[in-house]
Design brief:
2 copies of one chain form a homodimer. Chain A has 340 residues and is an alpha/beta fold. Chain A has helices at residues 12-19, 23-30, 38-50, 57-64, 82-95, 109-121, 167-180, 196-211, 227-240, 252-264, 282-285, 299-314, and strands at residues 69-74, 99-104, 126-130, 148-151, 161-165, 186-189, 246-249, 274-276, 294-296, 322-326, 329-331. The first copy, chain A, folds into 3 domains: 4-48, lambda repressor-like DNA-binding domains (434 Repressor (Amino-terminal Domain), Orthogonal Bundle); 68-165 and 299-328, 3-Layer(aba) Sandwich (Rossmann fold); 167-297, Response regulator (Rossmann fold). In chain A, the strands form 3 sheets. The first copy, chain A, has a 6-stranded parallel sheet with strand order 2-1-3-4-5-10, sandwiched between helices. A 3-stranded parallel sheet of chain A has the order 6-7-8, sandwiched between helices. In chain A, strands 9-11 form a two-stranded antiparallel ribbon. In chain A, helix 5 links the parallel strand 1 and strand 2. Chain A starts with 11 loop residues before the first helix and ends in a 9-residue tail after the last strand. Chains A and B meet through helix 4, helix 5, strand 2, helix 6 and helix 9 of A and helix 4, helix 5, strand 2, helix 6 and helix 9 of B. The first copy, chain A, binds a DNA duplex (16 and 16 nucleotides) through residues 11-13, 21-25, 27-28, 31, 35-37, 40, 55-56, 58-65. Chains A, B: Pfam families: LacI, Peripla_BP_3.
DNA sequence: CTGTTAGCGCGTTCAG
DNA sequence: CTGAACGCGCTAACAG
């Protein structure tokens, strides 16, 4: 019978009895209140140790009105963007005294409602809602008994607080980098046009091109966020516009495909053709030849900030509202800058 | 002040007062006990609805002695293997009435101890410990007040129950498939030799080769689990042993590198050279040219099973002990079988 | 300094 | 059928 060795956890009254004091005294002794004799405290602490006493957080929470837990409501754990956010949040909370309830709704609204109910019944002190895309998602409503922060996917209600990466700035940043590298004939291969991410990045890219008096070479190419599409699109592009000198890709996966085709067609990267990806998914971006310059959305930081906001809200601080677009950053590697 | 609209959650006594009954009656009405008049029940349910009453799970748990929560203690969320396991477990639990506390120890023993304490103080009904490698990890000990199941990384104490993928069988399966494809000159490129996974897979491979009266071409090549190493190793291998007709790779990343080099050197896959990966990481395995045959460890299922074991243990069922090696499966794609 | 008392929100006896 | 009373484990007021 594995993992059943220990008896049921000791209670405070067990400790008190063993130390020969009252329950209240034991409580004070263990919680570091200063109105208890040193000798008594030692006895109590010893007894607690011997029984490996662990205070019951539920009983404590019942009194305090706070549970020291928050809910992390994700719509789809599978998504690559979920994990860093989740890590950031878990990290920020774990450092304090709060624990995280993880709920995966699997993209199903019913299940989400179910999980939400469960979280509320567990009296979480706050909730972070993490969506899988940057498209706005339905708000949980304004009648929540606890603070809610939306991460990655913003809420569609501006009265909610949402934290989402700044894809527009990312698109701009990518183009500005390419221009800074002396490129002027820039094309764009990206994913599903139904994604706000695709549109926002493109808009940012257009803005940067405009500002430099340039235009995209050909139309922006939309399809899916895959390496295969990157390969096919690049082949089409390079045939129709052999004179492009840079390609801004909507994802690292697409960029990997583009690199592949460039190699097949004998185009040298970055000298002859610069390629920039998006997401900075290191498994892909650091293992390509050459390594991939990319835009990093700082997702872990986003998760951390979401956690911090929830913290603040719990402490009664006004955390504001609206959708905040968090800064992204450029990670430069060999696909845009020749290594010396 | 977003997400603060609702007042504090209603309590059962609020509901009772509004319905004009006693707390006890309200409780019975809401919990479907049959000793309450239909009319009364309706009044109570209505009142509960209007106040959007949600029972306090803590108070309930205090009485029941069970919390309906389990702890998921991971050593490193970043790991690719964590996520499917976590999903499987969350899935299995989410279907029932239990919620999951997620704790990431970041590979730090101190932090793990800290989180463990937190979980126990929250009186989780059970714990799943998920490690990032298949090498045995230190046991949490036999004195746990709740059942513990180890997933992926087995415990080093045979009295614990551990669920881990069968890497030996995976290695065997890979080789048997290659032999089944008519290959006889098989080489092995894998990752860090310090990983049990690398050793176990190799052992399984050797067993399968033995059984067929074959030997590995050259020595097994160890280094890191990266695409770069796959490329470099393949180049060395193909130069030294141009006659190899198949390569068993210790990971899909390595296999991607191998495919890359094969293409550079004009070796056609799978006709001239069959390549098989490991992990079935779909982003990599389905986006290569040709797509990658691989071994899938069924991690999501592993997570689900771990959850099921914890469930059983909570219900008092004896879940056994020892390290169980769960079956893996072969996923055949174009890198070993020519598409017709 | 220590012990007694009173709840936190709920489910469960057991009398009415 | 309904309600009053008790207790889950703990902390915060008070008394002693």
């Amino acid at each position: 019978m594995p993992s059943e060795g220990g008896a049921r956890s000791a209670t405070l009254s067990d400790v008190a009895r063993r130390a020969g004091v009252s329950i209240a005294t034991a409580s004070k002794a263990l919680n570091g209140r200063d109105d208890v004799a040193p000798a008594t405290r030692r006895r109590v602490v010893e007894a607690a140790d011997e029984l490996s006493f662990t205070p019951n957080a539920m009983a404590r929470g019942l009194l305090a009105g706070r549970t020291g837990t928050v809910g992390l409501l994700t719509s789809d754990l599978e998504g690559r963007f979920m994990l860093p956010i989740l890590m950031g949040a878990e990290d920020a909370f774990g450092a304090g005294q709060v624990n995280v309830f993880l709920c995966d709704a699997r993209g199903d609204a019913i299940r989400e409602q179910h999980h939400l109910k469960a979280l509320l019944s567990r009296r979480v002190d706050g909730i972070i809602v993490v969506g899988r895309q940057t498209d706005p998602r339905p708000s949980l409503g304004q009648e929540m008994p606890v603070p809610v922060v939306y991460a990655y996917a913003p809420s569609d209600d501006p009265r909610d607080l949402s934290l989402t990466p700044d894809n527009y700035a990312g698109g701009r940043m990518a183009i500005e980098h390419l221009i800074g590298c002396g490129r002027t004939r820039i094309a764009h291969i990206t994913g599903d046009p139904a994604y706000a991410a695709a549109q926002d990045r493109l808009a940012g890219a257009r803005a940067a091109l405009d500002a430099a008096g340039l235009e995209l070479v050909g139309e922006a190419m939309f399809s899916e966020w895959s390496e295969h599409w990157g390969r096919d699109a690049a082949a089409m592009l390079l045939q129709r516009h052999p004179d492009v000198d840079a390609i801004f890709c909507g994802s690292d996966q697409i960029a990997r495909g583009v690199l592949d085709t460039a190699r097949d067609l004998g185009r040298s990267v970055p000298d002859d053709l610069a390629v920039i990806g998006y997401d900075n998914w290191e498994v892909l971006s650091t293992n390509s030849r050459p390594q991939l310059t990319s835009i990093d959305a700082n997702l872990q930081q986003l998760g951390r900030q979401a956690a911090q906001r929830v913290f603040d809200a719990i402490d009664g601080v006004d955390i504001g509202e609206g959708t905040h677009h968090l800064p992204v950053r450029l990670v430069i590697r060999g696909s845009t800058i020749p290594r010396r």
